[in-house]
Recover the amino acids of this structure.
């Protein structure tokens, strides 16, 4: 879909990428620890037969990894999993394509890292928002607000918002398992709601998440409604539709 609103949303995502990625890529997507590099003073004059130790500093590696994740998220969004190549991603971060494999052994591993970063960021945002609320409807509203705010500012949202349509079929089972862990948060929120007996909570959950996840395709930052207002309106609309049915059911129970 190549609309003006889509382009605006992607531009906003790309502009926010550098600041949003720091907390997630460092904590959730931290690469396996490597032995600390020796200082120049302690290094031998000649390399051993096994070859020299890696020269890159751990901090530099972590920063480089962040840049790769952001660039990959953008390219996966634009070209899909099959269309985006490791050469494209390496070029976007001014890196030789061979050097990219130092950080990720395959494109599949890189996509998993992008997807996991997005899911981790969403989970932390929602969990933090839920700590402040106890009322079931207020908790659902807080979760929806946190979900949408994160979705619209995260550099990874462009890759995770369309769901699994971007991904090769062979990768979907592992990604579905990761996504389901996040969906369980909303499942528990829907289970806690006082709903009429005829309401299908699973369908309601899918409808809420579907509406929220589609927002990046039409949202424009310069318009009057903020992400929080959009999310609250969605929950309020659902609550208003369900309210009369719940009231009627309670009256029938009492009579």
């Amino acid at each position: 879909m190549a609309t003006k609103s889509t382009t605006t949303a992607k531009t906003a995502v790309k502009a926010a990428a550098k600041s949003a990625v720091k907390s997630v890529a460092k904590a959730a997507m931290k690469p396996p620890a490597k032995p600390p590099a020796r200082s120049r003073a302690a290094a031998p004059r000649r390399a051993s037969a096994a070859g020299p130790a890696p020269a890159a500093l751990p901090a530099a590696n972590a920063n480089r990894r962040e840049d790769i994740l952001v660039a990959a998220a953008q390219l996966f969004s634009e070209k899909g999993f099959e269309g985006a190549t490791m050469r494209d991603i390496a070029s976007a971060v001014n890196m030789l394509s061979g050097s990219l494999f130092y950080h990720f052994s395959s494109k599949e591993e890189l996509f998993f890292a992008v997807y996991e970063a997005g899911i981790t960021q969403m989970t932390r945002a929602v969990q933090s928002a839920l700590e402040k609320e106890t009322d079931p409807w207020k908790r659902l509203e807080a979760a929806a607000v946190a979900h949408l705010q994160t979705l619209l500012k995260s550099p990874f949202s462009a890759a995770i918002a369309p769901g699994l349509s971007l991904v090769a079929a062979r990768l979907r089972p592992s990604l579905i398992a990761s996504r389901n862990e996040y969906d369980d948060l909303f499942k528990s929120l829907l289970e806690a709601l006082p709903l009429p007996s005829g309401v299908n909570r699973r369908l309601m959950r899918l409808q809420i998440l579907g509406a929220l996840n589609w927002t990046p395709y039409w949202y424009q930052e310069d318009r009057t409604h903020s992400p929080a207002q959009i999310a609250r309106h969605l929950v309020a609309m659902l609550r208003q539709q369900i309210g009369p049915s719940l009231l009627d059911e309670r009256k029938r129970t009492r009579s």
